[in-house]
Write a structure and sequence with these properties.
The protein is built from five helices and no strands. The protein is mainly α. The radius of gyration is 16 Å and the shape is elongated.
Length: 106
């Protein structure tokens, strides 16, 4: 059997991932780039790592909203559709190309 401390840690981390999964679809729902699966995965990783590195607070509801402008600004340097979203020039009508975001992940 697994040690109790490990079981508790796994349960806590699953709870963290579950809460992040609930909050991410609420993140900038009207901004097309944030519907991209790779962007969601990026946000999920950042929020999960934040929670691990800050055990005193962990993940709390609303951290996803704090991450949103950071992602928007950082990715707008590399992906044109994010620049359009940042500038308010019609990103809602643009679909993020997986290749653009994949290029950043490499």
């Amino acid at each position: 059997p697994l040690p109790r401390t490990l079981v508790r840690r796994i349960a806590a981390e699953c709870g963290t991932l579950h809460q992040i999964a609930i909050d991410l679809p609420r993140t900038a729902p009207g901004v097309a780039p944030f519907a991209c699966p790779r962007v969601r995965a990026l946000q999920e990783r950042v929020l999960y790592i934040w929670a691990l590195l800050h055990p005193a607070s962990g993940y709390v509801q609303g951290l996803n909203e704090l991450l949103t402008p950071i992602v928007l600004v950082l990715l707008s340097e590399h992906v044109p559709v994010f620049a359009a979203a940042r500038d308010g020039t019609g990103a809602d009508a643009v679909v993020v190309q997986e290749a653009d975001v994949a290029r950043l992940a490499d």
